[in-house]
Every structure is written in structure tokens, then in C-alpha cells.
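Priority: medium. Attachment 1 of 2:
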């Protein structure tokens, strides 16, 4: 095994899970999801941004609601429902 390997680089603690759960709950209160797929999209956005360092549940919820209502996310969802695999890269391209 390589010395460069890090031990469980993405381990989530109970605190992390509670913060993400709270963010998804807040996002659902801001804009109730129309169906379970929207719920999953909100959770996916919250998870991605939490891992990037945005840990405040209120801000995470606001970002999730904003992004889930964007055309890019709607197009991503339409592709997913059609069975087309599309990689959506949310990283900043600076």
C-alpha cells in the first residue's frame, strides 16, 4: 500500500450528518420539493458543498435551493430521468 494513501479522507461524523440533515430540512421548508427526485437533488447539492467546506446549514440550504432551481440542474435532472449519464462539475473554473 502506498504511503500517500490517507486513511478515510471523507469520514463524516454525527455532527456532519446532523448539519447536512438540517440544511436539507431548511431547503425543503424554503421550497417544498415537487417529488422525491427533487429531494435527492437538494441532498446531493448539500453534500457536495458541505464537503467543500460550506458547513452552515442556513447557507447550505440557500445554495441548494438556488442551484436546484437553476436551468443547469433542471437539465441534469432531465438527463438523469432519461437514463443519460452526465457529469456535472460544480467546481469553480478560475
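Attachment 2 of 2:
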Amino acid at each position: 500500500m502506498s504511503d500517500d494513501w490517507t486513511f478515510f479522507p471523507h469520514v463524516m461524523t454525527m455532527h456532519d450528518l446532523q448539519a447536512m440533515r438540517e440544511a436539507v430540512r431548511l431547503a425543503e421548508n424554503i421550497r417544498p420539493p415537487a417529488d422525491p427526485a427533487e429531494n435527492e437533488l437538494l441532498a446531493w447539492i448539500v453534500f457536495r458543498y458541505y464537503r467543500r467546506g460550506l458547513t452552515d446549514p442556513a447557507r447550505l440550504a440557500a445554495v441548494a435551493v438556488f442551484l436546484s432551481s437553476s436551468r443547469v440542474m433542471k437539465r441534469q435532472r432531465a438527463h438523469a430521468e432519461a437514463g443519460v449519464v452526465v457529469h456535472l462539475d460544480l467546481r469553480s473554473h478560475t
